[in-house]
Amino acid sequence: MKRIVLIITLVLIAGLGVFLWKINKMDSAQDVKHEKWLDARRPYEVQRESLLQEIENLDDNYQEATSPRATTQILFTDLNEQVYSVCYPIMKGFSYTGTLVLSSAQLPGAEGCMSMEQFQELMEAGWDVCVQWEQEMLNKRWWRNYTVQLEGLGVAQGEILYFPKGSYSAELDTKAQELGFTIVVVEREDKESPLQAQYEEGLWHVGAMGSMTVQPKLWLREAVAADANVTYLVSFHIEKQLYNSQSFRGMLNAFEQYVTSKELVVCDILTAREHYKSRLNGIAPEQVATYEAERQNLESELAKVEKKLKELDKKYQ
């Protein structure tokens, strides 16, 4: 009797072993099949994510190019080293760039100014420059010598001429154009509006205000409401433009809020002018057609990828 029980036990153990072996083999086969399914899907999932990102970027670029938005920028009216050491890192954190105002007394490498190496780093980071109006510009020889000096520093004069408060008059527009400028930035008086809401043929006039004047954020709100441009001036020695850490960060945070809501573009002045120029005659039909064709092509490619993923799911079920 004991022998019979022992035999039955051994048979049951052997049967259980065979059963577990088969189960393990089936699980292993399922694991292999699952891995093959994941491997087969992976390149198509990557392609799908890439196409979805392309569609999102296309939509964002089209909206930015066709939607009315306000524009703004920051001009630093001196080349103090702190523009590089203090302001640059803060703006970099927001992915914003600034514009440096050059004058005969304020050039990179000069006493009290940022070094040439610091200046070049800002240029490589996407910052740009503009030239400050000086009465000596009326003298052709002085201007010729000044431009040669700029070229020696590897700096082009550019298209933008900045007029500090009280130095601008309409009669100087002709001279500005003769010198090769296409944009004039004029620092406004405290009660004057700094907003510019339209494109001008010939010479584009941009209003600017000191960042420490009364209620600078109020003008930003007005610019957003009117889809207009407003330029802010920051300095380390001029009272109404004087840098203040709390106010500066507060201004950039205000920019970011409007940027996030897609009501504001923080850009250089040349880009701002093109923004208003493109809106002058509305959206060009060919621009709409190009966008629609590109989106349709991307959606077609996406549909092919989605179809392939469904086929793989069905194959490995």
**Gap between N and C termini:** 50 Å
- Tell me, briefly, the overall form: elongated
Largest sheet, in brief, is: 7 strands, parallel, barrel
What is the mean pLDDT?
85
As a whole number of angstroms, the C-alpha radius of gyration is 32 Å
CATH architectural grouping of the largest domain: Alpha-Beta Barrel
> How much of the polypeptide forms β-strand, as a percent range?
5-15%
CATH class category of the largest domain: Alpha Beta
As residue ranges, the low-confidence spans are none
**Structural class of the helices, strands and pairings?**
alpha/beta
Q: How many extended strands?
A: 8
**CATH third-tier fold name of the largest domain:** TIM Barrel
Number of helices: 9
Can you put this structure into words, describing what you see?
This protein has 317 residues and is of the alpha/beta class. A seven-stranded parallel β-barrel has the order 1-2-3-4-5-6-7. The protein contains nine helices and eight strands. β1, α2 (81-94) and β2 form a beta-alpha-beta unit. The protein folds into two domains: 49-68 and 279-317, no CATH class; 72-268, Glycoside hydrolase/deacetylase (TIM Barrel, Alpha-Beta Barrel), CATH 3.20.20. 56% of the residues lie in helices and 13% in strands. The longest helix has 65 residues, at 2-66. α1 (2-66) runs antiparallel to α9. The model has no long low-confidence stretch (mean pLDDT 85). It has helices spanning 2-66, 81-94, 116-124, 140-152, 172-178, 216-226, 245-260, 269-278, 285-315, and strands at 70-76, 99-102, 128-132, 160-163, 183-187, 204-210, 229-234, 264-266.
